[in-house]
Design a protein that fits this description.
Radius of gyration: 32 Å
Strand order of the largest sheet: 5-6-8-7
Largest sheet: 4 strands, antiparallel
Strand content: 5-15%
Order of helices and strands: HEEHHHHHHEEHHHHHHHHEEEEH
């Protein structure tokens, strides 16, 4: 996410130098071979960027499905949105101009028109928007890490903290902070009209007086950018992901004691640790380039390579979700790969998939607010299954062939209640069931009372009469 958009001004100066001499230098920087510029920022960045746009678009659609509604997925939607904007700005400012360095594309009407008339006009606007998207993308990655830290290391507080409403508030706050922090960027560059040697006029991108102010460069561009975009988020990501990894490693030693919900949360955490690991790999070069710029060294090939890596990082999350997110993958297949199925059939499959994941807690990106409800249902089902396997002692005396109350004493190891147990109406062949503790008895014994016809009580399994 840490794309060095300041290389835009480097590229402008280098284009001017290249037109004068192929051996011209910019400071301590050697002008790279046009073949390098064509393949790295031109071909590779554009290919990765367009594939990333497609992947992020699909990710937003899948994560927006009602079945995928959760606090984590809402943050991931925001992350994919910022990454999409970041990729677009990379293509417009680095990808398309890079293609023009090839002689064949340089003579193309589309690329020459874009470079001379479109690029200088849109750059003063997409330049700050790209930096805004960069900031939002970085801190939403931090937000995802914090959400996973609470879910894995503080599971008792996760139900209160990691809610869908709080996720909306977090995304809104990060967006507002990103806009406020990057507001001065809108006054850094502008465009002017210059006269060419052929007595023609064209637009040029030039820095403003604010961008050339030495205090502004030293404080805001150098130090604040280094701390706010590099050191602070890198430190937070490294610290919290280390704690998450240690907690997962500790839990794996007692894996048999983990509930399905806890295993699911740890699976999600491992997926997002992979996302953060790719983040570090793709942005470490950008950090090195930024430090070199502080020391007064400008290396355009390194800057363009870091731009390519950052674009790749913004484009690869869809692949990570498909590899580690079982539910994400299944919802994606049901949404996009079921063209032959009717809309009603796809809706039924999504509902069935939602039911399966809510009861079994397998796989990938899933809702967390309803975990306690489904856990109680699962415990109730297991308790009922154990009760049906018990041998029940039935005491009854049939008199006058009428309905009469029957009490069955059940030895049960678990004193849990039956969530959702209801009282039905009595009658011939119908059951009326309630759960209560036997008065004065062992607290681990329960009594289930039935109102049934006496003829049904002779050697009959109570589960068949329910």
């Amino acid at each position: 996410k840490l794309i060095l958009l300041d290389s835009l001004l480097q590229e402008k100066n280098m284009n001017e130098n290249r037109s004068n001499s192929s051996d011209e230098t910019l400071g301590q920087e050697v002008v790279p071979d046009p073949l390098f510029e064509f393949w790295v920022p031109g071909v590779l960045l554009n290919c990765v960027g367009f594939l990333g746009l497609l992947g992020n678009f699909i990710s937003i659609i899948v994560l927006s499905r009602p079945i995928m509604k959760s606090s984590l997925n809402f943050i991931l939607i925001g992350l994919a949105s910022f990454d999409t904007v970041l990729i677009l700005t990379s293509i417009l400012m680095f990808g398309l101009p890079g293609l023009q360095t090839y002689e064949g594309f340089n003579r193309n009407v589309f690329f020459s028109t874009y470079q001379d008339n479109v690029f200088p006009i849109i750059t003063p606007y997409i330049y700050p928007v790209g930096l805004l998207a960069q900031t939002g993308s970085v801190y939403l990655t931090v937000c995802v890490t914090l959400e996973r830290y609470v879910a894995v290391c503080k599971p008792m507080k996760a139900k209160v903290i990691c809610t869908y409403r709080r996720a909306k508030i977090a995304v809104a706050i990060i967006t507002a902070v990103a806009v406020g922090y990057n507001m001065p960027r809108f006054w850094e560059i502008t465009n002017t009209i210059e006269k060419t040697e052929n007595n023609r006029y064209r637009y040029e991108v030039v820095p403003t007086d604010l961008r050339q102010n030495k205090y502004y460069i030293e404080i805001y561009i150098n130090w604040m950018y280094l701390i706010f975009i590099y050191l602070l988020p890198f430190s937070l990501l490294a610290g919290f992901n280390t704690l998450i990894f240690l907690q997962i490693r500790k839990a794996n030693t007692n894996r048999a004691q983990l509930t399905r919900s806890e295993r699911r949360e740890r699976g999600l955490a491992m997926m997002l640790i992979c996302v953060v690991f790719i983040f570090f790999l793709c942005n470490i070069l950008a950090l090195v380039v930024n430090v070199l710029e502080h020391l007064g060294h400008l290396y355009y090939p390194l800057t363009q390579t870091s731009n390519l890596l950052v674009t790749f990082n913004s484009s690869v999350n869809f692949i990570v979700y498909c590899i580690f997110g079982e539910k994400f993958k299944k919802v994606f297949l049901l949404t996009f790969c079921s063209a032959t199925k009717s809309k009603a059939t796809r809706r039924e499959e999504l509902v069935r998939l939602n039911s399966v994941y809510h009861h079994h807690h397998h796989g990938a990106i899933n809702g967390s607010r309803r975990d306690s409800v489904f856990r109680r249902h699962s415990e109730s089902a297991r308790l009922l299954e154990r009760i049906e396997k018990r041998q029940m002692i039935v005491r009854t005396s049939a008199k006058n062939h009428r309905q009469m109350p029957v009490v069955k004493i059940i030895e049960e190891d678990d004193s849990s209640s039956f969530p959702g147990t209801s009282r039905g109406g009595g009658g011939g062949g119908e059951t009326r069931q309630s759960l209560r503790t036997v008065a004065g008895g062992n607290p681990r014994k329960f009594a289930i009372s039935y109102s049934i016809h006496p003829d049904q009580l002779v050697h009959e399994n109570p589960s068949k009469s329910q």
